[in-house]
Design goal:
The chain has a seven-stranded mixed sheet with strand order 1-2-4-3-5-7-6, with helices on both faces. It is globular, with a radius of gyration of 15 Å. The N terminus is likely disordered. It contains six helices and seven strands. It is an alpha/beta fold. Helix 2 packs across helix 3 and helix 4 runs parallel beside helix 5. The termini are far apart.
C-alpha cells in the first residue's frame, strides 16, 4: 500500500480532494490511473459534524471529494445538494453522500435533478435496497438524527451493494420520464 496524497482547501465553497491507496474491498483511484468511482460528499451546517466524522473514517478506504461546507456558519442545503448532484451527473462512476440536519430537505432537493436517485436512509436494509433495487447514486443521511456508527454502517452497506437490474431497471426508466 502506498501513501496517500491529500489536498485540503480552506473555503467551504471549494472542493477538497483526497486520493488514497487502500487494501479494502472498496475501489479507489490508484496512481497508475485505474479509474474507479469517486465519492462526493457535502453537507450543510446541520450535517457538518457528522460529515467531518464520516470523512475521518472514509479517508482510510475510498477516494473522496468534499464539496463543503467546512465551517459551522449557517448555509442553505439546496446549494450543497446542487453542487454535489452536478458533480455526480458529470462523473459516470460518481456517487454522492449528502447530509443535512434530518436528511429530508437535502434529499428532496437532490431528487429534483434528472438522473439523480437520492435515498434518505435510516437503516442498513434501506441502504442496501436503495442500491439493489433503486440504483441510488446519492445516499442522504440526517446529521442530527444518525449516529456515526449507524452512518458508517449505512455507507458501507450502500457501497458494497450492487444494482440488481432486471425488473428494477424497468422501474428506474420511468423515474426520469415526464409525468
Amino acid at each position: 500500500m502506498q501513501g496517500a496524497s491529500v489536498t485540503l482547501l480552506k473555503s467551504h465553497c471549494q472542493p477538497t480532494v483526497l486520493t488514497l491507496i487502500v487494501a479494502s474491498g472498496i475501489c479507489v483511484r490508484y496512481d497508475s490511473g485505474v479509474i474507479t468511482p469517486s465519492i462526493y460528499i457535502a453537507s450543510d451546517h446541520g450535517g457538518l459534524e457528522l460529515k467531518t466524522r464520516i470523512l475521518a473514517y472514509l479517508t482510510t478506504s475510498v477516494r473522496i471529494i468534499d464539496l463543503g461546507t467546512n465551517d459551522a456558519a449557517s448555509v442553505d442545503y439546496p446549494d450543497f445538494a446542487d453542487r454535489l448532484c452536478s458533480e455526480v451527473l458529470q462523473d459516470s462512476n460518481g456517487q454522492g453522500i449528502l447530509i443535512c440536519g434530518t436528511g429530508i430537505g437535502i434529499s428532496i432537493r437532490a431528487n429534483r435533478h434528472v438522473g439523480i436517485r437520492a435515498a434518505l436512509v435510516t437503516s442498513e436494509l434501506m441502504a442496501e435496497m436503495a442500491k439493489a433495487h433503486n440504483d441510488a447514486n446519492v445516499l442522504c443521511i440526517g446529521g442530527r438524527t444518525t449516529s456515526l456508527e449507524n452512518a458508517i454502517a449505512y455507507i458501507k452497506r450502500w457501497l458494497s451493494t450492487s444494482f440488481e437490474g432486471g425488473r428494477h431497471q424497468l422501474r428506474l426508466d420511468k423515474l426520469d420520464r415526464p409525468t
